[in-house]
Amino acid sequence: MLSSDISFQNISKAIDLISKASKLHQNIEDVFSVCTFFAYVLVFMNFVNMVLLNTTEFSNIELAIRAPMYIILFSWIALHFMKVTLTASKLIDTCNDWRLLQMDVVKNCANMKPKRSEEFRYLLLFIKCSKLDLVFTGLGMFQLNRSLLLTMGSAVLSYSVLAVTF
């Protein structure tokens, strides 16, 4: 609708939808940020615990019973953390798609050659107010994206090598 008719009503509707989406994202972020951070910490703690269990001898029957429980717990937490991270990265992809759509609106409006300076001001208002940068974080310490999984994998591998060598 904005690519064909740039008017104050259309821009106000678009900005209202963007602000509602941003508020909804912030509410979800407030709820899940703490849980995400603790899941991140639990992945590392359970992995280090599994590595340490594997370096000890299984002469004690209690350790032999505890090891499969830790493996199951680690697998469950790591799988769900990876699932949440990949889902959160889809939000980043959506924001990137929004930037492309925003550029299309500007390109289409530039081709229409605004008849009035008022339409040009509306276009500038749209560009200024339609920024959409939504990411999920873990208490603001890290962003959930695909590169986080690579970083976690390399850190887990490094810690396991250190634990095994000592």
Automatic annotation (TrEMBL):
What biological-process terms (Gene Ontology) are attached? sensory perception of taste
Topology versus the membrane: Multi-pass membrane protein
Domain of life of the native organism: Eukaryota
Keyword Cytoplasm carried by entry:
no
Pfam families according to UniProt = 7tm_7 (PF08395)
Species assigned in the record: Caerostris extrusa (Bark spider)
- Quick one: signal sequence residues? none
Query: What keyword terms does UniProt attach to this protein?
Result: Cell membrane, Membrane, Transmembrane, Transmembrane helix
Q: What is this protein called?
A: Gustatory receptor
Q: Where in the cell is it found?
A: Cell membrane
Spans through the membrane? 31-51, 63-82, 122-142
Q: What GO terms fall under cellular component here?
A: plasma membrane
Gene of origin?
AVEN_35718_1
Task: Name the InterPro entries for this protein.
Answer: 7TM_chemorcpt
